[in-house]
Amino acid sequence: MDTPGDYEFAPLRIPPGTSRSAAATMLSLQSDIGGWELARLQLHADGTRKVIMRRRARLSYLPKPVI
Fold first, then answer.
1. Alpha helix locations (H) across the chain?
2. How does strand 7-14 pair with strand 49-56?
3. N or C end of the chain, less CB within 10 A?
4. What is the helix (H) or strand (E) element at residue 8, kind and residue range?
């Protein structure tokens, strides 16, 4: 089983008013380019999405996600 030390995490915040398909596209690009995967997504009442992305620590030479 994987331990938390095997991963690096990156918190992101997607602003309110961003459509679901646009948010999915942004996260998909981060996944394809940087090797990130979705660890957690929270949708708040004001429409803000709080996202935690993770990737294996050995991929740390790749860029951090940017939204």
1. 20-34
2. antiparallel
3. N
4. strand 7-14
* Cβ-contact 54, 8 below 8 angstroms: yes
Edge to edge, the sheet with strand 37-43 lists 7-14, 49-56, 37-43
Residue with tokens 């679901």: 20
Spatial separation of the C-alpha atoms in residues 59 and 63, rounded to whole Å: 9
The tens digit of pLDDT for each residue in 27-49 reads 999 888 888 999 999 999 999 99
Neighbours of 12 (CB within 10 A): 19
Residues in the chain: 67
